[in-house]
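I am still getting used to backbone structure tokens and would like to learn alongside you. To get us started, please write out a protein record for me. Once you have written the record down, we can walk along the chain together.
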Amino acid sequence: MLDASPQPHPPLREPDLVLGVDLGTSAVKVLALDSTGAVSGEAQGHFETLSELPQQAEQSPADWLAALSAAMQDLGHSLTACFGEAWRRRVTAIALTGQLPTLVCLGERGPLAPAITWRDGRADEFAAERLGAAQRKRMYARTGMPIDGRYLAPMLQFHFADQMHAIRCILSAKDYLLFALTGVRATEPSTGAGYGLYDLIEGRFSAELAAFWGIALDKLPPILPSNTVAAPLNEAGAQLLQLPAGIPVTTGAADSVCAAYAMSGLHPRTASISLGSSAVVIGASATVQLDARARFLVTPHVEAGWYGREMDLLATGTGYRWLCELFGWAEGELDQRASASSAGAQGLFFPPYLVGGEQGALWNSKLRAGIFGLTLQHSQNDIARAFLEGVCFELRRCVEVLAEHEPVERVMVSGNITRSAGSTQLLADILQRPVGMVTEKSPAAYGAALLARCVGRPAVSGDSVVSARISQGSIEFKNPTAALATRYDALYREYCEVAARCA
């Protein structure tokens, strides 16, 4: 006779966790991803930027580590509340990503000076004097980068020429984080591209370009493949993160391509726009596609053999915050005020060139912002609308450049804009394409963690990443409004004529 009494079930195994760490422009963001791809927790820790001198933007690597420790404490509290202290033993990998190009010079005992971030423009004039049009063209053909003073090589020569003897290694921000957690000095192709020395075809740092900038090759880190295990978490790293030592730490990839991967997978006809302190526009390509006018940079993507065609608007989020502080607006009020105005902002145009350097598809450090058409009849609402429209017009300029090489069928967007239905609709109307909203606080950390789940295997290509997230209901789309799209088509042409006066 069979025993019909209930049999005890074996205890269910808690899913493994992977941590994504994004060293951003103003904060370190950490994210825990479980084995199903769901986000188990997010946290962030902020740090300051030193900007006492014109165009200066420096940060302390020690502040990065303190912010990472604080973020991990907050993440630990939320994960402990969900899973108990055992969550720490379930972490199977730590994936890194971060801002670039940001220069850290290591001496015998650590960083010799504060890090020079990508927002620092003090080397722009120096680089422009060294690089004529012909030299820039040759470098673009080698590196895929329209080199200016915000790459690590010219930064190093401008700021540290008299300290070369004391420098043991130069690292980008993410590379420094890897060093702090593991003791290993290494980079990978997508971050290595920010050094201004990485040869796209040969897949290594160029001795010729290093010599041009007066940099010894032995001061550059080894280049490992993206998204591979670099080393285990060492004791110092374990203490910083409050995790067991020995957890594999991956090389990850640059924040731009990690975010793009999280938002659009590796799909050539889906562009991604990450709206943070700056706006990063990326289209994926399975081949190296240089632009005849060098309007975009070409960077190695998260998967070998894939490349990102990238353009950056340098003052979108910072410009947004500046305008809010200028008028005393609360968080989100700018979007509300913009919605209270109408298409065209009552005749105002606001090209958002509020800092020098790259402006999307425009590589002109002399561009300056302006408000055109201002009269006594205009309100704060019109200025808010003109600013958002200016940002969206510049994003359209970028998307249209991408579309010259490969059709762009839809655009995925992340950042604070996703909190405003009106602003997201405005973007769809101006881009004249469906816009999908990705709501994670750090798509870059999400992308790094997502990649770490398949270390040693190819990244998921095509539409799979986006399709999976749409099916989970985590992405909502805004479609262009026909009448407004027609109106904005004419306004975009007028905007481009007005913005040309800003040079």
Remarks:
- Residues 380-405 form the longest helix (26 residues).
- Residues 341 and 382 are 5 Å apart (CA to CA).
- The radius of gyration is 23 Å.
